[in-house]
Amino acid sequence: MLKAVILIGGPLKGTRFRPLSLDIPKPLFPIAGLPMIQHHIESCVKIKTLNEILIIGSYNAAELVNFVQEMINIYGISIRYLQEFTALGTAGGMYHFRDQIRAGCPEAFFIMNGDVCADFPLESMIESYKETKGTLTVLATEATRPQSLNYGYILTRLAGTGKLFASETSNWWSQVKTAGAAIYANRHYLNLYRSKKPERLIPVINGVCNVLGDVYINPSASVDPTAVLGPNVSIGPNAKISAGVRIRESIVLEGAQIQAHSMVLHSIVGRGSIVGKWSRVEGTPCDPNPNKPFAKMENPPLFNSNGKLNPSISILGTSVNLAAEKILLNSIVLPHKELTKNFKNEIIL
C-alpha cells in the first residue's frame, strides 16, 4: 500500500500570488482548467496501489471541504484534508500528522509540494525506489548558478559510495510562486493534454471558434465563432468571449467577460471581470531564459533595485471593470476596481 501527502501551506504563504489568491486558496487556482492540486491528485490515482491522499496545510478546512468531496466523487479514492493549528513548515506538518501518515503501515509514501506543477513521473519513481531498495527517492532538478547560491545540494557526499543513485527523466517541472509562473504552467499542462488527455482540448477545426494551438474551454463558457483563441489559452466556467476577440497565452477565469474586438495577451483575467469593447490587456512574458542551461522560472520580485515595477504579465483581480477602448499594459489590478483610463506599468490598489 502507498500513500501521498500534498503540502499546500496556508493563507500567510503565497503572497506573491496576490491578487489571485485573495478570494481563493492558491492551491485551488485553476491552471489548464483544473485546480492546481487536482493535477497532483490525477497523477497519484494512476498508481493502483495508492490508497489514500492526505492534503496538509493551514487553510481553514471550510475553504477546501467542497473541493475534497468533489475529488473523492470523481476519483473514488480516500482523500483527507489535515489542518495545521498554525503554519508548521514542510517537516513540521509531516511530523505533526506522522501517525495519520503512517496509519495502515504503508510501504512508502509520496511527498508533493502543492505549488510545484509537473508531469509527475510517479510510476518511474516507484520502480527506481524498488530497484535501489533505498530509504529515500528524491525528484530533483539542476539549478542555475544564481539559484544554487540560495539552495543546498542533494547528498553529494554520498556519490561514489554505492548509496546514491540517479535516474534521469525528461518530464517538465515548474514552481508556481507568481502569477507569471501560472501562465507558464498553463502552457505545459495544455501541451501535456495533447498527448495524454486530448479530449480536454478544443480541436483546431471545431466550429466553436478559431483555435490556434492548445486551448481549453470549459463547457459552460460562451465563445463567439469569430473569436480567435490560442495558443495556450484556458477559458473558465461561464466566461463569455464576444465577437472578434483575440486571446493568446492567457487564463480567463470564471464568469469573466471579454467584450467585442478586445485583445488579451499574456494576462490573467479574474473572476467576474469585464474587458470592455476594443480594449487591450497585455503583459510581458516571463519565461525562463532559453539560453541558460537548466533555466527555471526565476519568480522575480515585483520591484527591481531601482524601485521600478518589473515587467510581467497583467492581472485583473476579481470583478474588475476595464472600460471600452482602453489599454492596460504590464499592470496588476486589485479586485473591484473601475478602470476608465489607460494604465502602464502600475499596481492599481
Automatic annotation (TrEMBL):
Superkingdom of the organism of origin: Eukaryota
Residues in Mannose-1-phosphate guanyltransferase C-terminal domain copies: 212-348
Pfam families noted in UniProt: GMPPB_C, NTP_transferase
Annotated Nucleotidyl transferase domain residues: 3-156
InterPro entries recorded: GMPPB_C, Mannose-1P_guanyltransferase, NTP_transferase_dom
UniProt similarity note: Belongs to the transferase hexapeptide repeat family.
Protein name per the record: Nucleotidyl transferase domain-containing protein
Lineage, top ranks: Eukaryota, Metazoa, Ecdysozoa, Arthropoda, Hexapoda
